[in-house]
User: Fold this.
Amino acid sequence: MRAHLDMLEDLLTCTSEAQLRLALNKHVKELGFDSWVYVANPAGQHTLPYFLSEYPPAWVEHYLAKGYLSIDPVVAHCRAHATPLLWTPDGPVGDRKKRCPAFFHDAADHGLKVGISSPVHGLGCQWGLLSVAGADQKVSTVTQLHQLACVQLLATFAHEAGHHFAVAPGNPSVHLTVRELECLRWAAEGKTGWEIGRLLSISERTVVFHVENAARKLGVFGRRQAVARAIALNLITL
Assistant:
């Protein structure tokens, strides 16, 4: 565990989202998982939470289109608890109520067949989580317990590094994803969320997600302010 702790210290030197993404990719792979998502909801924020993800893009689009954020039992657990959660296609391990089976079956269909989700709190955030996931794994109880402990430790370091990007106001060096820029460009042209969705072959809900995430990064509220701020920073042009 001491050796693993020393290895995680590279996360604390990350000064950009790109560096954090690369570091998390490395550590998650070393634990035997394929993908991950880091989520943080800054205190006082009423829009969608910040997220940095290496989950399959098809799953992210499906998740947003289905509106799963409001019923996701993993999110519900991480908002209310401090203990990590192990889950499979049958749902959270040990959950006799079998909440939202369709959600976990959908995740499994997208390659997320087993996962561990660790809550994170504080550092200016109301709640957050780090989830790691991968194909179905047959591991011993000892290995499973080791993975749980390592993911919880990894989540602590990820949040120490990642909360800066979640709570920091927008600035001229802000990085918007390609999809966020596309949505803002079409919004600047006066297109509605539904029209942008048709143009980009994504759902209207997903368009709203990208615009709100861009607004948070830019330190503004709402679609119009996000467009104005992006133009002022020369991130998009009319």
About this structure: The domain at 2-167 is CATH 3.30.450.80 (Beta-Lactamase). The CA atoms of residues 34 and 97 lie 28 Å apart. The chain has two domains: 2-167, 178-232.
